[in-house]
Amino acid sequence: MIANVASRRVLLGKTPRARAWALAATGRAIHVDAPPIVPTLTSSYAHGTSSSSLLDVTVGDALDRAADRWPDREAAVFVRDGVRKTFAQFHRDVERAAAGLLCLGLRRGERLGMWGPNTYEWLLFQFATAKAGIITVSVNPAYQAEEAEFALRKVGCKAVVCPEAFKTQKYCDMLRLICPEIPACPPGDIRSARLPDLRSVIVLDSRQPGMFHLDDVMQAGDNRFLRRLHEIGKKLLCDDPVNILFTSGTTGRPKGATLTHHNVVNNAFFVGKRVGFDWRPATRVCLPVPLYHCFGSVGGGICMAVHGLSLVFPSPEYSGKDNLAAMQSEKCTFVYGTPTMYVDMTTQPDVRRFDLSSVVGGIIAGSPCPPELVQSVMSVMGIKEVTGHRPPGCVRLLPRRRSHQGSHHQRRRKRLPGRNRAVPAHAPQSQRSAGGGRGGRPHERGDLRLHQSEGRTAVNRGRRQDFLQRKDFSLQDSALRGVRRQLSAHRHRKGPETGTASAGRGAAGTREGQVSVFHVKT
Q1: SS3 for 138?
Q2: In 3-state terms, the chain is what percent helix, strand and coil (to 5)?
Q3: pLDDT at 458
Q4: Are residues 75 and 207 in the same domain?
Q5: Whole-model pTM?
Q6: Which residues contact 485 (CB under 8 A, 6 or more apart)?
Q7: Looking at the structure, do residues 139 and 24 belong to the same domain, yes or no?
Q8: End-to-end CA distance of the chain
Q9: Which of 84, 203, 235, 288 has its CA 20 to 30 A from that of 41?
Q10: Which residues of 24-35 are buried (b: 16+ CB within 10 A; e: fewer)?
């Protein structure tokens, strides 16, 4: 809003030069603090005009505000496990868990791996680590020993939280396979050759040699560590890292991406505004998507804190029938899912027996959604509003390019590695994750990003990369090559390459070949 007012003031100026500057700045959607004759950026920190300001708060701040505003509202319901927590209860558990982690020796900026299905403890430690300044590492619960070792070693996890087992996944057995030294070590002092950073393993449901139990953590945080927790909270910045997510590993080893408090809070804030969480009363979201994905942890967990949602988890793993039963029994008003999850729910043989009249909206994400599925969801499940990604095709391979450009959306910043300050414009810097250090771990992609004075960004690829926008399953390399050949032939027929859309920072318009967001309402 301030930027809009500033632009109008200059536009009403008497000099043609001032009017030209205003038109140029408005066209570029860039706001700077003073009106230069030629709009330039002196720092790589700029933001676009918007009627909704970005939130400069941490995840812990968001939860504190939610607990103060809605103390008696249900924050999370885990139907199969029989767990129900109000915001006040959840906030109290989070502070106890965070203080316990500090007592175990974890410090701000260190990493804790969450490895397991959707349980209350996953949500609990997501917020406990955020409050303590610890970085949550989202580990795929389907990882086998080799994959888990790669992920935990890559990011240098100091602690791992997991159940003993879930279905066929034997988490503690796999950790002992990776680190045979664990049974002989005292809890909290693991010394492993293959995971040199690992010190603690916290088991959720049983006691194991050399490992802590969840109760040990919850009881360890006394008043001294609670005071330390509150002191840390005062020093945390919204630009501090809070979460590391791994890619699927479709075209190689999984690669890590680090998200900050600012990333996840504003992602949740604007997702909620887009679908109306900011004005809908007491929204209850059925959440079958996994918490180790951004869809579940940010679209679910962080949205809960930012917008006061009540999250309903039907089961630890996906079950279409459990989802329908939970929507009926818990009177859910919204439902999340990937396209394949919605296909499964709409094709359940007894779907029409469930009373889904309370469900008014849904989000289909994770991959592009065909129009036929939207129609099926609205007709079979009776959902009136659906928001998701509109696909240009069933599978889309974003074209490889030496560089691409994109205009600023809201705010974009670039910082010197290891320093909490913006770099000058025109200064190319390797794209490191926030709080990287230690030789770029985690993770340095090798690309260079150059902020130009007119407010645009060029990314020069440090290596050849393939980006796959897929449905919910991996494609083999041979299939990738076939898709690439088809798309290459299509581009030659249609003309020059189209640009790519970056998640969360797309340009104002959508060009040919990009995935765009749709919102369907009856």
Answers
A1: strand
A2: 35, 20, 45
A3: 54
A4: yes
A5: 0.74
A6: none
A7: no
A8: 32
A9: 235
A10: ebbebbbbbeeb
